[in-house]
């Protein structure tokens, strides 16, 4: 039986695949050669299967232009349009965005196409400051680079929505609904209008109202009920949500997706509680939940920080209600920081284990534990391993963590009855190569069938390498797989070294 192993994003090897989901697309073909051989009428008479291949090669601008040529072109491209823009829906906690989601969920064609719902952290703040406003979406930036477009500016929300959240259309009327300029492909510039404080304040007040009144939760619950094929929910700030562009044009300042230690962190906690409560209430048969939102660095906004575990800590009433989460939810991805909120240092492992413990049915857990930026590193796995017990865990992914092999061994031993595979990416282990060899020996003697994937890990600051036979002779690699049998582990013990 094949086992699902946590993947690693092609563009960033220190993140599991869930963190970069939907950011990498096939290289676009701006003008497929096959189009030159046909008039438009002849092209649209081709079999749907061939049309799908051609349309897949078009970038967003070419695809949109093709759909505008005629009603027949629009109808012929409908399957490709649905596949391109509705597999994943990006939303924010605004009435405009949430109402659009409900309409899509009720649509006979669009609703069944949605597989992933991504709640973006874009939001309005009480006191906006246009001079330091952040609206940066790495997922959209990756697409812009890959498609050969100019990278979006960091301080303004300038990238075309067609690349991030689908064409911003009202898909509630007719076969496809009314088209608007929300997804205008010419929108590559930044906002030129000054901040309309009244309009911005109005949207902030509306945001607070739908959160505090329960309307946001009701919208998402209703959408999940009507999405028959929904599989995954993501909380992230990688992409720009549907509606953000319209709000930015309305106010002169786009919603921010920055999450700092002030009012935005409680906002993230609200998003989390609203999402989990909506999932539990709807009974949607989800299989995956990924919470990958992070904090933007204030010094240059060049990388994302992770969030601290006390944000995850549920209240007792929420904890009881989360027992209604669907048993189908078996995969969890968390992006967390090894740092802790002032005053919550001693609760780091308790807060995290209490949250993970809500998902007792988990078979796959991916943990990204970002090391602290300043001061000595903290071995959080030492605190977490004795507290966490997942009775059905089969696949573990651990990313960027700093720990000891003893603590890794404790975690693996506590789940040896069910654990089948472990992926370690950029894990730093204190001590030398002997520590890794002792871990391999422990696994060989007690769990030889376990499969271990190692990518760019270290021992005492040195790269962990494995010797392998290649056409040009022996080579050492920092990404390798080991395990499956007693003999394989013995060979690996003899083949690894540090440099």
UniProtKB/TrEMBL annotation:
Residues 40-89 form the F-box domain. Residues 164-191 are annotated as: Disordered. PROSITE patterns: FBOX. InterPro entries: F-box_dom. This is F-box domain-containing protein.
């Amino acid at each position: 039986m094949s086992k699902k192993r946590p993947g690693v994003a092609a563009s960033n090897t220190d993140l599991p695949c869930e963190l970069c989901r939907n950011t990498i697309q096939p290289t676009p073909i701006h003008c497929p050669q096959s189009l030159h051989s046909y008039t438009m009428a002849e092209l649209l008479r081709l079999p749907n299967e061939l049309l799908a291949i051609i349309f897949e090669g078009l970038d967003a601008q070419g695809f949109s232009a093709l759909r505008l040529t005629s009603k027949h072109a629009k109808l012929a491209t409908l399957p490709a349009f649905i596949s391109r823009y509705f597999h994943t829906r990006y939303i924010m906690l605004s009435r405009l965005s949430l109402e659009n989601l409900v309409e899509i969920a009720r649509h006979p064609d669009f609703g069944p196409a949605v597989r992933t719902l991504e709640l973006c952290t874009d939001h309005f703040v009480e006191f906006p400051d246009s001079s330091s406003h952040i609206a940066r979406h790495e997922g959209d930036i990756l697409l812009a680079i890959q498609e050969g477009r100019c990278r979006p500016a960091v301080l303004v929300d300038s990238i075309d929505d067609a690349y991030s959240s689908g064409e911003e259309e009202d898909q509630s009327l007719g076969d496809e609904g009314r088209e608007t300029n929300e997804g205008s492909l010419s929108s590559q510039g930044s906002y030129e209008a000054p901040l309309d404080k009244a309009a911005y304040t109005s949207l902030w007040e509306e945001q607070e109202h739908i959160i505090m009144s329960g309307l946001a939760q009701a919208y998402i619950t209703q959408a999940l009920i009507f999405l028959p094929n929904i599989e995954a929910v993501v909380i992230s700030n990688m992409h720009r949500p549907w509606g953000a562009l319209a709000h930015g044009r309305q106010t002169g300042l786009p919603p921010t997706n920055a999450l700092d230690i002030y009012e935005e962190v409680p906002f993230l906690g609200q998003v989390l509680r609203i999402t989990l409560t909506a999932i539990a209430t709807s009974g949607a048969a989800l299989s995956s939940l990924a919470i990958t939102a992070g904090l933007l660095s204030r010094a240059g906004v060049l990388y994302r920080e992770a969030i601290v575990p006390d944000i995850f800590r549920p209240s007792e009433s929420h904890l009881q209600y989360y027992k209604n989460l669907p048993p189908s939810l078996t995969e969890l991805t968390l992006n967390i920081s090894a740092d802790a909120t002032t005053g919550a240092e001693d609760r780091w492992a308790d807060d995290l284990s209490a949250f993970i413990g809500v998902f007792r049915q988990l078979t796959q857990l991916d943990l990204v534990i970002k090391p602290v930026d300043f001061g000595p590193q903290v071995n959080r796995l030492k605190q977490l391993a004795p507290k966490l017990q997942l009775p059905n865990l089969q696949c573990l992914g651990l990313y960027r963590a700093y720990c000891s092999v003893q603590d890794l061994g404790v975690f693996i031993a506590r789940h040896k009855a069910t654990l089948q595979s472990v992926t370690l990416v950029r894990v730093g282990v204190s001590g030398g190569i002997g520590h890794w060899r002792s871990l391999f020996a422990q696994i060989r003697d007690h769990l030889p069938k376990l499969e271990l994937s190692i990518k760019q890990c270290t021992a005492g600051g040195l790269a962990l390498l494995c010797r392998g036979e290649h056409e040009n002779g022996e080579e050492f690699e920092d990404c390798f797989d080991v395990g499956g049998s007693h003999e394989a582990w013995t060979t690996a013990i003899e083949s690894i070294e540090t440099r």
